[in-house]
Amino acid sequence: MSHIIIRLPEVMRRTGLSRSTIYLHMSKGHFPKSVSLGERAIGWVEIDVEQWLDERITEAKAINNE
User: Fold this and answer.
1) What would the pLDDT profile of 9-20 be if each residue is shown by its tens digit?
2) By CB atoms within 10 Å of each CB, which of 22, 24, 38, 46 scores lowest?
3) Which residues does 46 contact at the CB level (< 8 Å), separation at least 6?
4) Is 7 helix (H, G, I), strand (E, B) or coil?
5) In sequence order, what are the residues at sequence separation of 6 or more whose Cβ sits closer than 8 angstroms to the Cβ of residue 19?
6) Side by side, which strands form the sheet with 41-45?
7) pTM for the model
8) In the beta sheet, which residues pair with residue 38?
9) What is the C-alpha separation between 42 and 34, in angstroms, rounded?
10) Cα separation of 7 and 45, whole Å?
C-alpha cells in the first residue's frame, strides 16, 4: 500500500486552518497526529487528513439539515 505524506503548508491549505489551530486540535485528539519523517521533519498521512475533512463536512451538513 502506498501512503502519501503531506507537509504542514499543504495541510493548512487543504483544511483552511492555521498552524497553531492544527497543533491545538492535535493535542486535544481532534485532528490526525503527525508522523515523524526524520529528526526535524514531520508530515501527515494524506488519507487521514482527507477523512478528517470528510467528517467535518458530514457534521456540518447534518447540523444545517436540522
Assistant:
1) 999 999 999 999
2) 38
3) 3, 4, 5, 6
4) coil
5) 8, 12
6) 5-6, 41-45, 35-38
7) 0.89
8) 41
9) 6
10) 9
Q: From start to end of 1-66, where are the E strands?
A: 5-6, 35-38, 41-45
Q: The C-alpha cell of 51 is what? A: 477523512
Residue 41 identity (one-letter amino acid) = A
SS3 16: coil
Say whether pLDDT at 64 is over 90: no
pLDDT tens sequence across 18-58: 999 999 999 999 999 999 999 999 999 999 999 999 999 99
Q: How far from each other are the two terminal CA atoms of the chain, in whole angstroms?
A: 39
Beta bridge partners, 45, equal 5
